[in-house]
Amino acid sequence: xxxxxxxxxxxxxxxxxxxxxxxxxxxxxxxxxxxxxxxxxxxxxxxxxxxxxxxxxxxxxxxxxxxxxxxxxxxxxxxxxxxxxxxxxxxxxxxxxxxxxxxxxxxxxxxxxxxxxxxxxxxxx
Amino acid sequence: xxxxxxxxxxxxxxxxxxxxxxxxxxxxxxxxxxxxxxxxxxxxxxxxxxxxxxxxxxxxxxxxxxxxxxxxxxxxxxxxxxxxxxxxxxxxxxxxxxxxxxxxxxxxxxxxxxxxxxxxxxxxx
DNA sequence: TTTGATGCAAAGTATTTGCAATCGG
DNA sequence: CCGATTGCAAATACTTTGCATCAAA
Lengths: 125, 125
Description:
The structure is a homodimer. Chain A is of the alpha+beta class. Chain A is built from four helices and six strands. Chain A has helices at residues 6-17, 24-32, 40-52, 98-105; strands at 57-60, 65-68, 75-79, 85-88, 93-95, 108-119. In chain A, the strands form two sheets. Chain A has a three-stranded mixed beta sheet with strand order 4-3-6, with no helix packed on it. Chain A has a two-stranded antiparallel sheet with strand order 1-2. In chain A, strand 3 (75-79) and strand 4 (85-88) form a beta hairpin. The radius of gyration of chain A is 17 Å and the shape is globular. In chain A, 18% of the residues are buried. The mean pLDDT of chain A is 94. At the A-B interface, strand 5, helix 4 and strand 6 of A face strand 5, helix 4 and strand 6 of B. The structure holds a DNA duplex.
């Protein structure tokens, strides 16, 4: 059974606190202000476990992963210039016949993920 | 100006030939049957260039990238079990007010990407 | 007490890059 | 010719893992 260690709870708290979708390293820096001798490996291990528990969300980006403390279904906007990730507050509906796809292909759909790509407000101009 | 080397054209040909969305390494193996002494670095370099030219498409997966020789807009199904990627032939429409989002956030949308996640036919059972 | 979790460092994996040699236009 | 491209190997970047020790329940 999983244990609630100081490390794990601080990692979760720090992630829930921000809306910046930090990378593992960025989160490591934040957590280190509260647990100076924590190791990067521990951050990775816990992000993995917290993700499996559904307490956080892993966002696959091009070069590395980012993490999101908000687990309600929502989509992301990815800036092609600075690589930052923003939340899309609006609901995005899909018009797609899941049943027909599943019958035709034999694949079982679990969920969808919409990525919105472009240039963020800071990078325009 | 870009040059049409043997390496570049064979890489493009081999990628166009398959529907399996190979990784750089997988494509390297295929290309090596025609150019035995080609190096993996050359494959990476050319995939990058071909992508910029819009001749192929880079698909960001969790741990590594895959590449697609089909550049017509289409979506992908990602198997969570075996990590294979399949084409979604059906059109997926989005109900989303792009203009309102752009005005509200200041971000400029270039395009959308829908990922369909689940378990593929081979992995079910 | 017991076993999952930690810190550390080393290893792994995917990708990029420096450089001298080569080749396409 | 001349500069883009190559093969090679070394270097990066991100992430995972082995292991002895520690600590939560």
